[in-house]
Amino acid sequence: xxxxxxxxxxxxxxxxxxxxxxxxxxxxxxxxxxxxxxxxxxxxxxxxxxxxxxxxxxxxxxxxxxxxxxxxxxxxxxxxxxxxxxxxxxxxxxxxxxxxxxxxxxxxxxxxxxxxxxxxxxxxxxxxxxxxxxxxxxxxxxxxxxxxxxxxxxxxxxxxxxxxxxxxxxxxxxxxxxxxxxxxxxxxxxxxxxxxxxxxxxxxxxxxxxxxxxxxxxxxxxxxxxxxxxxxxxxxxxxxxxxxxxxxxxx
Length: 251
Description:
single chain; 251 residues; alpha/beta; Rossmann fold; 8-stranded mixed β-sheet; 24% strand; disordered N terminus; hydrolase; FrsA_esterase; Dienelactone hydrolase family protein; hydrolase activity; AB_hydrolase_fold
């Protein structure tokens, strides 16, 4: 009990590189224990690294993981409007090699942390970040489990060959999210079925894009976009992700 009184979730900035580009991520962990624990690479929304992502990382740390907030844009760039956010996220999604390199650079940083068991690493992504982690699973990345919250389904990596997808995959999306088209679900299912991947899609009725982000409703009104926080879908999807990671990272 004494240890828990002094225990705290620590968040430390980590500067690393992808080629010539300086990346600025964060490692987040609970210092109550010195034991090595599973790691989760976290990939941000199209806005960049926001308070929402920091908050989510702290929750994972409290659940016994080391979270690494990846910087997918370089220099921790963020956007405060959809035009800039679209340009930043588009620059990554239009260049699948760069996307892979940036994700892998973050994964390597996470695996190097003294608090991490490098054999037990998963990934989670939100919106744009959801597309990134799903694409990384498609490439056969060394990940035990991957969860995408209100994941964009922009698939920019080749269809995986049978048996190459290592990660257990969970897609947690709003059933009424206009940003994700039915044909995108169909294409994703076709590819994952052919690859014999272990995946599950959960859709939350009434939920739209960005439903886990408490800032989403205000942003939706400000920019006239279908973004809205949904407390019920947020809670239920987090419970699903917690089960996925516990079963595949902590076993």
